[in-house]
């Protein structure tokens, strides 16, 4: 949901690329979110074959709480690291994940 708070109306594929998870995992996550009225899917106005994932009012009401919780978790995870170390981690970790996914 954090990704949608930043940019609502993404496609499932765009969400997968942004948060770096596989399509089946994202599909299951979105189904659960739809069942609990956190998202709805709307046809893309430019291409009716694609669906856009849009946050509901219920999800928007949770935004401040969820963003705050994410910041607390990030603070705990990076405690003991300098600002420079956190910046280095944030800049290198996205490049490491694709390499790790090729390990069999």
Description of the structure:
By secondary structure, this protein is mainly α. It has a domain at 2-61: Arc Repressor Mutant, subunit A. 62% of the residues lie in helices and 12% in strands. It has helices at residues 2-6, 12-19, 23-35, 57-61, 63-77, 83-100, and strands spanning 10-11, 39-43, 51-55. It has a 3-stranded antiparallel beta sheet with strand order 1-3-2. Helix 2 crosses helix 3. The two termini are 30 Å apart.
A few lines on this structure:
The radius of gyration is 16 Å and the shape is globular.
Weakly predicted, low-confidence segments: none
Q: Provide mean pLDDT, rounded.
A: 89
Q: What is the total tally of β strands?
A: 3
First-to-last CA distance: 30 Å
CATH class bucket of the domain at 2-61: Mainly Alpha
Please trace the helix and strand order, writing H or E for each element: HEHHEEHHH
Please give the order of strands in the largest beta sheet. 1-3-2
State the share of residues found in helices, binned by percent. 55-70%
CATH superfamily of the domain at 2-61: Winged helix-like DNA-binding domain superfamily/Winged helix DNA-binding domain
Q: How many alpha or pi helices?
A: 6
CATH overall fold name of the domain at 2-61:
Arc Repressor Mutant, subunit A
Secondary-structure content class: mainly alpha
CATH 2nd-level architecture of the domain at 2-61: Orthogonal Bundle
Give the percentage of residues in beta strands: 5-15%
Largest sheet: 3 strands, antiparallel
What is the CA-atom radius of gyration, in angstroms? 16 Å
Dominant shape: globular
């Amino acid at each position: 949901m954090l990704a949608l708070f930043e940019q609502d109306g993404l496609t499932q594929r765009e969400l997968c690329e942004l948060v770096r998870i596989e399509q089946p995992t994202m599909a299951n996550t979105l189904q659960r979110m739809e069942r609990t009225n956190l998202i709805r899917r709307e046809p893309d106005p430019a291409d009716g074959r694609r669906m856009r994932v849009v946050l509901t009012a219920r999800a928007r009401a949770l935004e401040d709480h969820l963003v705050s919780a994410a910041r607390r978790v990030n603070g705990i995870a990076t405690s003991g690291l300098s600002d420079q170390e956190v910046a280095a981690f944030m800049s290198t970790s996205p490049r490491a994940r694709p390499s790790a996914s090729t390990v069999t």
